[in-house]
Amino acid sequence: GAGVSQTPSNKVTEKGKYVELRCDPISGHTALYWYRQSLGQGPEFLIYFQGTGAADDSGLPNDRFFAVRPEGSVSTLKIQRTERGDSAVYLCASSRGANTEAFFGQGTRLTVV
Amino acid sequence: QKEVEQNSGPLSVPEGAIASLNCTYSDRVSQSFFWYRQYSGKSPELIMSIYSNGDKEDGRFTAQLNKASQYVSLLIRDSQPSDSATYLCAVRGSGSARQLTFGSGTQLTVLP
Questions:
Q1: Dist CA B105 CA B87 (whole Å)
Q2: Which own/partner contact pairs does A70-76 have at CB distance under 8 Å and 24+ positions apart?
């Protein structure tokens, strides 16, 4: 596609529920990143994929968070047993390679009520 | 712990002036540096990248990098009200640490 696409753009869920957030990177981009951003803060790193494998998942806050990229393209961020503190904008970015410019999608605003 | 520090502002400049945004980073082996612009309610938009010491100019924007001082800056010449946004500095490490580490951003307001 022309840009990074994230769905849904907004998600409201109840505390304790499971959610999946989807990211479709720019075609041909091998690197994919997930970040989350709270109001007034910079994006906080969660996980980085190079191809199908998670090259660095050191930013995942706990084991309720998991992400996959089974075919090296689309990625899904999965959050189990959501908590109100998980409310944030979840951003996905992709880049052509490990040392090139990264471009962001429009984000998914997650609200846990 | 890799850190990227920015003055959170807010920074206000009059229209037509030069806006100067600064960023320092802690990881000495960082390889590449980026400036993103983020309008309220929108996602970050890449505006500049810089990889080597010195200046890089693109239109009204100039990025400056000094690896010895671990310092990167962004100058915006002839500032316009449409430049009012939060500017995020991002640094990419080396080796296995390829993720971008972001500062908290500087909020810029250009006054008409």
A1: 5
A2: A72/A30, A73/A24, A73/A25, A74/A22, A74/A23, A74/A24, A74/A25, A75/A22, A75/A23, A75/A25, A75/A32, A75/A34, A75/A49, A76/A20, A76/A21, A76/A22, A76/A23
> Chain A window 85-104: which residues touch B at a Cβ cutoff of 8 Å?
89, 91, 93, 98-99, 101-104
User: What pLDDT digit, counting tens, does each position of A59-85 carry?
Assistant: 999 999 999 999 999 999 999 999 999
Task: Say yes or no: B42 contacts chain A, CB-CB below 8 A.
Answer: yes
A35-66 confidence digits (pLDDT tens)? 999 998 999 999 999 999 998 999 999 999 99
